[in-house]
């Protein structure tokens, strides 16, 4: 009877397991037990993965003997990629150690560096002992001839290693999904770089253009033809999805303004990077270390005012300025340099959770102007602002290099506040030519626009990259004088992606991931106590259990 019941139980369990396996082959589900649901893929990611019908390979260069901090990033990357693969088996990944001997470390490291995947040194603090680890925190998504780089570690300047890891993990799903989307989707959106407005030479915005070229069609678009055929110029511009107006120095005439205005009215997106004051660092490097900063006008004020913002002809001087290196003397044949706080280059830390600026590095401005937002029906979002320790300097005025770096401001006597430097505008804009005679007649003229978006930035130099000794463009945001990399490129690329994003990928940047990281200060303070807890206590418990078990066993069998 007992044997029969055992057989029945066995057959019952076997039957349940068979049914579960059959059901499991038709029903797919993975359980995410994390509190922040970090392994639950967003709908935008699922949509991207759903369109992957051919194999995509992701090479991840995060293999090796890493310190604990980087192992966390390695583990999180692997687990997230496993989720991608579980959802769509066409997404394959491989972890590679680029510095292993069998991979010809020197050759592979050089190849990665040439392709823009620069290594970084991670400082590891182990009980007060500092060590440096060189790693390549990158991955590459590959589909046929298409390749897309994935930056796995955000190298924030002011952050600790733990904060960098936490920030990077939060950024992982967006970074990987964007790369998969990039290699799996043919480019379709077109960007016009507006020319003929006294804009910088292409070599000074080359890194920005190169970055955009990976995802979008970009082309120069001159407004010179407005003089002869404004209707055709407007029609040609409307074939583009986004217009970028970067640091114009010439005034716009009425025909050019109407072309840009009607482009906006018909739903065209735009980014405006404007200087309302003539001031630049080169003008300061003279015998007096002074320059005259004076207002300049591109005749765009009325149009932007109608849209809901005003870029003021002033300079924002921020106590939280960016570092600047200046020669202070000679030591033998060597020039001695010191680092100073340059207050006319606001060191802007984003405090917003908007997807454009959420979790980005510090952005550096140069001779920025304040922006006023005006009341109308347009939704306005301040993306970046100066610190609360800022003042406005009216123009015209004399800017002195030596006085600015030496002056001390008493917050008790000087009123300080934060000023908007970059603003996003969304909605149905009203034409600047409403109730006015238009410069030229055109078909489909609109006074009330279709829904669209634009971003206004009060600094034309935010897009400017420096040149190396061979006069080749360097990475946007990199300052060769202080060896500092700012978040300018990430901000501008995010801005473009937000304006042209139809599938909501950019919103993944707002995903919150909370890592349970060790409190190192507490670990160092209670190191011996923790050792006892995790080493001695388990052994003591095991010994007590063994003693009690042996005692009870002897007592039972000696009766």
From TrEMBL:
A Pfam family reported for this protein in Swiss-Prot or TrEMBL: ABC_transp_aux
Gene source species: Paenimyroides ummariense
> Any idea what this protein is called?
Gliding-associated putative ABC transporter substrate-binding component GldG
Q: Which InterPro entries match?
A: ABC_transp_unknown, Class_I_gatase-like, DUF7088, Motility-assoc_ABC-rel_GldG
Domain spans labelled DUF7088: 35-141
Q: Which residues cross the membrane?
A: 529-552
What keywords is this UniProt entry annotated with?
Membrane, Transmembrane, Transmembrane helix
Q: Which residues form the ABC-type uncharacterised transport system domain?
A: 189-495
| Segment forming the signal sequence | none
